[in-house]
Amino acid sequence: MDEGQRLTVTTLTFWKNRAAILVVGLTANKIMEWPFNYILYPGVIYLLGIWWGGLIMIILSFLLCILTIWFYDWSKKDWLGIETIKTLKDYEGGHLAGRMTSWFLRRSDPIAFLFLTFWYDPFITMAYLRRGAYNGMGARDWRIFLISLFLGNGYWILASWMGVSLLEYLWVRGESLLRSS
Hints:
The protein has about 180 residues and is mainly α. Helix content is about 85%, strand content about 0%. The protein has six helices and no strands.
């Protein structure tokens, strides 16, 4: 095998391993994130109300994100593509989501912070904005994480409350329509 073939095999092996890590990481994150955001969050808000339910969900979100940060730093693997997202600042391809993300990330750290806080979660926001990778959390990182935690959860609390209120209204309205006919 000559040098060019070895380089190609090495490159293919690298990208195969990188793809496998991303597939497993992104799949695991979605399996963890989707039920949390779309089942548990509205369920707790419905059962406990906006204040107590919101407080419980902020605490659960904090714990879930901290455990994810610790695992991310411990594994020293970019299993969610966060380090790759940092390179999206210069994206000029044909995908709308990539161009939109690039546009927001190029603006400034505060704009990137708001975009990531509302589009992703406090863990991804902090990991993207921290200086370096897999190096724990300094005081700046904690501030970013906690502000993102409260803003992002404020959004989810209101969105969940509005969603369950709408469903409750439609349910009651539907029952009254059925009874009157």
